[in-house]
């Protein structure tokens, strides 16, 4: 089984991936972020480095999907190959960071790759407002993230809403996280678990899950 955790930069994807892996005994699969040699360059000059950045991420995500398909284990993944393309790459194109030629080449690669793999069994989307994202980004203190433009986060948020509703080919669970602290508050985390159990195993969530929507 394959569960993907989806959400904008600073929404808590990695934290939730870690917590779910520990709770269920699933194998976590984390996004290759720090290892991307173009990330710091991209935030300094998005137009120059966007294509390099996106191709590196696409390559890594495709490797991850192949590993997941061949593992025979239940995997919880920090960000899927689908949102990497339909949200981040499409956003870079619309912002002028990717020209038409480069984007078409990139999409041809994506289409070939995704013809060989299945969508996750469940996509858990962590919906967060831009102020919430900014605060989380500030708190975790990654140098290369501190210069992210607010407009960039706003554009990504709009694309997440469109992607989750209109483009994603599989099952989606939406969790609003602005008023949750699932790392420090066991009740918040238990509510998320209830809703995931309901989606995956047909169990009915208890009243705590009503606080999440």
What does this structure look like?
By secondary structure, this protein is an alpha/beta fold. The protein has a single domain (2-178), classed as P-loop containing nucleotide triphosphate hydrolases (Rossmann fold), CATH 3.40.50. It has helices at residues 13-24, 39-44, 46-71, 81-94, 100-114, 130-140, 150-167, 186-201, and strands at residues 2-7, 27-29, 75-78, 122-127, 172-176. A five-stranded parallel beta sheet has the order 2-3-1-4-5, with helices on both faces.
Overview in brief:
This protein is of the alpha/beta class and 213 residues long.
Task: Summarize the helices and strands and which ones pair or pack.
Blueprint: E1 2-7, H1 13-24, E2 27-29, H2 39-44, H3 46-71, E3 75-78, H4 81-94, H5 100-114, E4 122-127, H6 130-140, H7 150-167, E5 172-176, H8 186-201
Parallel strand pairs: 1-3, 1-4, 2-3, 4-5
Q: Which labels suit this protein?
A:
single chain, alpha/beta, Rossmann fold, five-stranded parallel beta sheet, 8 helices, 5 strands
The first-to-last residue Cα distance is 25 Å
- What is the mean predicted local confidence, pLDDT? 88
> Strand order across the biggest sheet?
2-3-1-4-5
Oligomer: single chain
What is the fold-level CATH name, i.e. the topology? Rossmann fold
Structural domain tally: 1
Radius of gyration, whole Å: 17 Å
Helix/strand-derived class?
alpha/beta
Q: Would you count the extended β strands for me?
A: 5
């Amino acid at each position: 089984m394959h569960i993907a955790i989806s959400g904008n930069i600073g929404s808590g994807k990695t934290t939730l991936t870690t917590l779910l892996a520990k709770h269920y005994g699933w194998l976590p699969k984390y996004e290759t972020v720090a290892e991307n040699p173009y990330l710091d360059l991209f935030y300094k000059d998005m137009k120059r480095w966007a294509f390099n950045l996106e191709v590196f991420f696409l390559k890594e995500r495709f490797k991850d999907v192949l590993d997941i398909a061949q593992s025979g284990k239940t995997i919880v993944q920090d960000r899927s190959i689908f949102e990497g393309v339909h949200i981040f790459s499409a956003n870079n194109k619309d912002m002028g960071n990717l020209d038409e030629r480069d984007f078409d080449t990139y999409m041809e690669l994506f289409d070939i790759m995704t013809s060989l793999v299945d969508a996750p069994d469940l996509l858990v989307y962590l919906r967060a407002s831009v102020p919430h994202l900014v605060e989380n980004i500030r708190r975790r203190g990654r140098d290369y993230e501190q210069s992210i433009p607010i407009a960039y986060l706003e554009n990504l948020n709009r694309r997440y809403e469109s992607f989750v509703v209109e483009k994603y080919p599989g099952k989606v669970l939406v969790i609003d996280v602005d008023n949750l602290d699932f790392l420090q508050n066991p009740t918040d985390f238990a509510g998320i678990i209830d809703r995931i159990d309901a989606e995956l195993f047909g169990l009915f969530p208890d009243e705590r899950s009503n606080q999440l929507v």
